[in-house]
Structure formats: C-alpha cells, structure tokens
Design brief:
The complex is a heterodimer. Chain A is α+β, with helices and mostly antiparallel strands. Chain A folds into three domains: about 5-60, no CATH class; about 85-260 and about 345-375 and about 450-520, no CATH class; about 385-445, Dna Ligase, domain 1, CATH 3.30.1490. Chain A is built from 15 helices and 26 strands. In chain A, the strands form seven sheets. Chain A has a five-stranded mixed beta sheet. In chain A, strands 16-8-7-23-24 form a five-stranded mixed beta sheet. In chain A, strands 10-9-14-15 form a four-stranded parallel beta sheet, with helices on one face. In chain A, α5 (about 120-145) packs across α13. In chain A, about 45% of the residues are buried. Chain B is globular and about 55 Å long. Classes of the chains: A alpha+beta, B mainly alpha. At the A-B interface, α4, α11, β10 and β12 of A face α1, α5 and α6 of B.
C-alpha cells in the first residue's frame, strides 16, 4: 500500500485532492517530496505513523502557487469563512448580478465568486498573449477579406457555401468599408487547459463577448478582502481595462475627440450590470435604442440640452436587433436608420456588423488555416480537433462515438443546445443523435477535453472544479489586452459547463510579474 | 445628459420621497388611532384620502380598519404607491441609471431594497408600526445624506433634488388639505371645541412634517390651527414647507440647461412668488381648501412642463 502524503495546508483546510490523471492548476502529484516542504513532510510523516517512504506519492502546490499555499496554511478556516461571507455581502450590495432567462420575471442572481485565485505564470501568459494577438489579427484579416475580395475563398481554403450560406454572414456588409479594417475591436477567446497540460482555444467570441466586469470586480474584491496576498507575489494589474477599451473605441474613428456611447438592450438584459459598469468606468453615456435617432444619415442622442451627434457606438446588442429597417423589423431595441448611417461611414459600430460569421463553430476549424494564409505564420495556439457533421465521414464518426464527444450547435452560446457525451445518459445520447441526424450541418463535435481544475470553495469544503479562461483582446491601432482575463469555474462536481447561466462561477485570475522566474519544468503548454 | 437618464433620476427620488411621506402619514395615523379608542373608520380612511387611493382600496373589499389601511398602504403589491412598490420603483429607476449616480448612492438604495426584501418575507400588519416607519424615513434620510456628500453638483444631482422637492411639496399640500381643512374646519373660529383632541391632532400634523420643534421655536406658544397652516405653507426655513420646497425647486431649475426649460422655470417662479409674497390671512380669507387645490393644480402644470422640457422622448 502506498502512503499518500499531503502538504499541511491541504489537511488544514480539508482540501479534496484532484484525481491522479487530472491537470490541476494549483496541485500536482509527484514522487519526490519538494525540498522546501521536506521538514513539514517529515513531521507529517511522523504524525501518520512514520512508515516507509519508498512508495509514497506526495501532493503539493506547484511552484507558482507556493506563496499562496503557504498563506493558506497560515490562515485559519474561520477567517476564510468570514471573509467569504464578506465577499458575498459586498457583491450583493454592489448588485453584481446577472439575469437568468426563463425564470419568472427574469430573476436577478449573484454570480458566485470564488476566493481561491487562478494563477498563471509569466511565461504561460507571454505565450498566450503572443498566440492571442496572432489569432485575433488573422480573424480581422479574414473578416475584411470575406466582405471584400474573398481571397481565401478564391484560394479554395474554405468552401464558399460555408461562408455565404452561413446565417451569420451579413450580405448587407459586402463592400461596406469598415474603418481600419477592424471588424472585431473586442474579442473574448475561450481557452482551456487539457490534462496534457496544454492550452487549447475552445472558441472565439466576436460578437458581444461579456464577462469582463466580473474579471474587474473579482480583482477589486480580492484586493479588498485579502490585501496581504498581493504583498506576497507580484500580480499584474487588470484595472486599466476600461481605459484600454476607451482608447480602442476612440481609435476606431478618425474623428478628433469623438462622442462614444455604449448601447445596451436595457436593464432586463442578463449582462446589464456589465453595461452600466463599463459605461461608468469609461465615462461615456449608456444609451438604449430609444435614446437615439437618425437624421440625414447621422446618429444623435436625445439629451436634456437637445440632440448630440454620436460618432462611435460600443454596442452590446446583436446584429439583428440593431436596426429594424435593415434587419429584424420586430426589434424595438434598435435604432431605425442606423445601418444606413453606418454604411455611409457616419458612425462606427464596435464590433462591426457581421463579425458573427467568424466565431461560428463551423468556421472555427479554419482559424489555423487563416493564420497561415493571411500572416504566413504557424499558429501559436492549439485548436481542438473538430468534426464537422456536414461532412458525411465526420458525421458517421460522430454518431458512432457520441458518448465520448462534446456535440455543439454551430450557432449555440451560453451552454445551451449541447451534449457532453461522457456526462450524458444513454437515452440522452440517443435523443441527441436523432436531432443531429435531422440537421447535420447545424452541429460540430469535439473530443471531450478534460478541462483543468482548480481548488474551489464548495459546500463540503475545498474541492477541485473545472475551469476555463476568457482573455479579452482589444484591437485598436494595435492589439492590446490586460494580463489574464476571466476564469470561469463549473461549480457542480464533474461538470464541464462553466457558463454563468448554467451554474458557473468565477475566480480572480492572477498573471504573475515577470520577476518571479518559474522553473522550466512548470512551464507547460508550450 | 440623456433625457431618459434625467427621467429615471427624477422618478427615483420622487418614489423615495413618496415612500418616506407614506411612512410619515401612516405613523401619524397610527398614533392618532391610539388616541381615538373608538377606532371609527373615518379616521382610518384619512391616509387613503390623502394619497387619493380610494378606488384602489375599494377594490380590496376590506373593511376600513387601521390594520387593513396600513397593510394596504405599506405592503400591498397591487397598490402602485404602497411603500413596498415605491421602494421597488426607486431601486428600478436607480438601477437603470446606476452609472450616473455615485456608487455610494446606488449601494445605499440597493441596501434598502435588500433589507426590504427581508422584511417582506414576514409581513405582519400588526407589527408594522413606528419602528418600521422610522426605518423607512431613516433610509430616505440616509440617501439624501449620501447624495449630499458624494454627488457632483451636476445635472444628475439637480434632477435628483428636483424630484425630491416636487414630490415633497405635493405631499405637504395634501396633508394640509385633508388632515386639516377637512378634519378641523372649525378650528379657525376661536371656538373652544375639544381642546385636548385638537391639540393632539394638530401636533400630529406638525410631526408628520417634522415641524413640531420648529413650531415651538417659532411661536413659543400653544399650538393653534392658524399658525400650523402658516408654518407649513409660508415658513422659509422649514424643509418641508411649501415655501421651502418651491424655493429649492426654483433654484434647481436655474441650474438646468436653460434652452428648453423656460416654461417650467416660469411656472415654478409664479408658484414661488405666491408663496414668497403671500400671507396666511389672505389664504384664510380666500379659503384654505381652495388655496391648496389651486396649489396642487399648479404643481401638476409644473410637473408637465418639467417633463416636456427635459424628459420627453420624441
């Protein structure tokens, strides 16, 4: 029998260890006892009865988590519990909520925010940042291309019908000049780490990616509740995100000192908190469709001292709702005539109309090709192998292996309309197969990645929960981002779905300063 | 500033002020009920009459007892001006513009709302008493304090103040109109009616607008009906008098963009002039009830003009 040893902080807080085969961000199994923990382990060993060490597996914190785990070891559970309660209270007071659809009257809920941070080494982040810059640059080139020259289609790299038959392809945008060819000013890229320790891009969100306010609020809470933690390690700041965003929006036009607004669908939208938060942080007006009108192809807002021209619009409203005259005629949220003003170049809309075609799951498999085609570079970030059910060979593979795959709707978002094979019952798999067969081109499938985990507060104590990462990439005159992003955590045991609408929570994400050199053996994902 | 934002701010503070006024009226009603042991339904209906909720209350088909009236005006979700709905509306309006108010202002309102949700879990009309009303008043005081101490003296601040004073003037006029002109029409004759009851009724009216101490300091004499009307209408230093509310309203309107607000400013100045240069003798000669009815009419005109000037969405 092998003797399993834990480091003291694990015992002190009853932390449930991750399974051997999993990749956990904080904890790692190893055969050897790390030298800095040697003494502690000797003591612990004696307490356990002090038998043979030869067969022992030890569980300890990864190098970059050592300052945090030492702090955890020194902090009594009661103090943690108290500060977690404080965090809950603060979030409730500030009203950091989201609205759950489908429940009576659109219930407001708190997004659970976990107080154990997700820590990323400086090296890992440098790698991710390079990869993200490359990826988003290529996607912007792609969007400019398909709405103008269509070189990538002419080269035969992507089948024409994949683009032109896509419901997210806005034919009205063909030939429309977008300033600086920047289509996606704000991109949220979902990245996960598999149990091979490598990072993979799960999807690109190019329409109205949300969650950045939670990233900022998590940091604010952590600094307020655990100031001592930020003295132990250099954590790179993220608070300047709104300033970067404003800079990006201002750079989207050539007008000097432009009037920038944020367009929200209103306070019944699930991300309304974020809209108000960002508008306030940037010091710009938060407008609804009813606040705006179009006259002579210019856009104005109604103010207490008359009407005022709007030059740049950061819209948090989907394409189809933007203008009832150009798109969905039923939309009461948009501004009649907006598209005409936009097409004439009298207002900049960020993100541009028609970006959705590039974050469609059926286009995702082509991103590595785009990088090679437009930038003549090798892709830095990994894509997940993707089976396109529209292809007969892929479809038959998917149907045969559905229980091992994640099957997703091509246009789905928010964790709806998907099947996680390994977590589904035989009946659920069978039912989903029928749905896929009925409309194969609407589905793609990917191998089930074993998302990395991170210790998280749950009802029974601290246990490993799966996480992902959504960095926010801003494209102005150059590509910028704050280090890290939003870490989402699937709070249900074993769940891989991190969406807030499906019981997900969030964690503060720390990117360590470059001064804290990490040994090569910990730099994974390369 | 966006017209919609102005409108939300204005209604945010009107609703908060309304919840406070409702608490004030109910508090006084309840203390008078203790005095009036016969518990006749007439007295219980007074707060319903003041707030013009007769039709809504009739729909509940409940007998007009103090307990029913208080439950209706404090808690009923079907009554748009119940304290509960006022606080809900305050928070909804604040939430719509939380980026335009300071985080302290928003957190204060959100705290009130959260605490109110807790209270609403166990509603006991019999226990809805002075302590509850004091709490509602205190939350309203706190919000004004937070606003005073944190908000930039800019348009959002001015629209917030505007809502407060327009709502408050309206309320003070209503209390005077009903509580006073109807209940004690004889008091102006120097008849020795029921001195004792009269004293309590009048001091209750004063307390409902936090004017009892001010009355004592001003007149240093027994409470009589004429002076009560005088202080509530004309006192320039009493924060809930009509004069004071209109002084503030006029000042606030002067701070707002002048282009569109001309008519609103003129109406406010006209109302203000009547208060500045009027006397209680003229009012009593004209008839208090008629005077107050005119005032309420003028306030409706002012409200319409303010709305047209700054908040309408064409």
């Amino acid at each position: 029998m092998s003797l399993v040893l834990y480091s003291p902080f694990l015992l002190m807080h009853a932390i449930k260890p991750p399974p051997f085969s999993h990749f956990d961000e904080m904890l790692a199994w190893s055969e050897a006892i790390p030298s800095q923990l040697q003494t502690q382990f000797q003591i612990q060993l004696q307490q356990f009865g002090g038998q043979s060490q030869s067969q022992s597996q030890t569980l300890g914190a990864r190098q970059h988590y050592v300052p945090y785990s030492n702090w955890l070891a020194d902090t009594p559970s009661a103090s943690l519990t108290q500060r977690r309660a404080q965090a809950d209270l603060l979030f409730r007071r500030i009203g950091i909520t989201f609205t759950v659809y489908g429940e009576q009257g659109g219930t407001e809920r708190l997004i659970p925010s976990d107080v154990i941070p997700r820590i990323i080494t400086a090296e890992d982040w440098a790698y991710l940042e390079r990869g993200l810059t490359q990826r988003v640059t290529a996607i912007n080139r792609f969007l400019a291309d398909i709405y103008h020259d269509q070189a990538i289609l002419k080269a035969g790299l992507i089948p024409r019908e994949q683009i032109e038959g896509n419901s997210q392809f806005q034919t009205k945008m063909v030939g429309v000049k977008v300033p600086h060819d920047t289509y996606a000013s704000i991109t949220g890229v979902d990245i996960v780490r598999n149990n091979d320790g490598k990072y993979y891009v799960l999807e690109d969100n190019l329409r109205v990616p949300s969650g950045v306010s939670y990233m900022l609020m998590n940091r604010k809470m952590m600094m307020r509740l655990f100031p001592e933690l930020f003295l132990r390690q250099t954590v790179r700041p993220v608070e300047h995100y709104p300033a970067l965003l404003l800079q990006t929006l201002r750079e989207s036009t050539d007008i000097d000192n432009p009037t920038v607004v944020l367009l929200t669908p209103g306070r019944f939208n699930s991300a309304y908190f974020e809209h108000t938060f960002l508008a306030q942080q940037m010091g710009i007006e938060l407008v609804e469709g009813q606040d705006l009108f179009v006259k002579d192809d210019y856009v104005y807002m109604r103010t207490t001292s008359g009407s005022q021209r709007v030059d740049v619009m950061y819209r948090r409203l989907d394409d189809t709702f933007l203008d009832p005259l150009a798109f969905n005629a039923e939309s009461a949220l948009g501004v009649p005539g907006l598209f005409q003003a936009y097409a004439k170049g009298n207002i900049v809309i960020c993100n541009a109309i028609g970006t959705g075609v590039a974050d469609d799951k059926s286009i995702y498999p082509y991103v590595p090709d785009m990088i090679k085609f437009y930038l003549n570079e090798e892709p830095i970030l990994n894509n997940v192998t993707t089976y396109q059910c529209r292809k007969p060979t892929d479809l038959s593979y998917v149907l045969a292996n559905m229980k091992d795959l994640v099957v997703k709707e091509v246009h789905g978002a928010g964790g709806y309309g998907m099947l996680v094979g390994p977590a589904a019952t035989a009946k659920e798999v069978e039912d989903f197969a029928v749905i896929v067969k009925a409309n194969p081109s609407n589905y793609i499938a990917q191998p089930t990645l074993s998302l990395s985990s991170c210790p998280t507060f749950v009802e029974s104590g601290i246990a490993p929960r799966h996480i992902d990462l959504r960095p926010f990439v801003l494209t102005g005159r150059e590509v910028r981002m704050v280090p890290g992003g939003l870490t989402r955590v699937a709070l249900r045991e074993g769940s891989l779905v991190v969406n807030s609408s499906q019981g997900g929570g969030t964690k503060d994400t720390w990117v360590l300063g470059g001064d804290e050199a990490t040994p090569a053996k910990n730099a994974e994902g390369k | 500033m966006l017209s919609r934002v102005a409108s939300h701010l204005y209604w945010m503070s009107r609703y908060l002020e309304r919840s406070e006024n409702m608490a004030r009226i109910l508090d006084v009603t309840q203390s008078l009920a203790m005095l009036d042991r016969s518990a006749d339904s007439g007295g219980a209906m007074t707060p319903i009459v003041i707030t013009e909720a007769q039709a809504e209350f009739a729909e509940t088909k409940l007998p007009a007892t103090y307990a029913n009236v208080i439950a209706f005006l404090a808690w009923d979700l079907k009554h748009p001006s119940s304290i509960r709905n006022c606080i809900e509306a305050t928070r909804e309006n604040a939430r719509a513009v939380r980026g335009s108010i300071t985080s302290e202002m928003w957190e204060n309102i959100n705290d009130t709302w959260i605490a109110f949700q807790e209270k609403a879990k166990n509603i006991d009309p019999m226990m809805t008493g002075n302590e509850f009303f004091e709490w509602v008043k205190e939350r309203s005081h706190l919000f004004r304090g937070v606003t005073f101490a944190t908000a930039r003296r800019d348009q959002p601040y001015h629209f917030t103040r505007l809502g407060t004073f327009i709502e408050r003037a309206d309320n003070t006029a209503r209390i005077l109109n009903v509580k006073y002109a109807e209940e004690a029409p004889d008091s102006f004759d120097e008849k020795e009616v029921d001195k004792e009851t009269d004293y309590y009724r009048l001091s209750a009216v004063l307390r409902s607008v936090s004017a009892l101490e001010a009355y004592r300091d001003t007149y240093r004499d027994v409470i009589d009906a004429r002076r009560v009307a005088e202080i509530m209408i004309f006192d320039a230093k009493l924060p809930r008098s009509l004069r004071y509310c209109m002084d503030e309203t006029t000042l606030v309107l002067d701070e707002l963009p002048s282009g569109s607000g001309r008519i609103a400013r003129r109406i406010a100045s006209e109302i203000n002039a009547k208060l500045r240069y009027g006397t209680i003798d003229e009012v009593l000669e004209y008839g208090l009830k008629r005077y107050l009815a005119d005032f309420l009419q003028d306030m409706v005109k002012l409200g319409t003009a303010v709305n047209a000037a700054y908040m309408e969405m064409h």
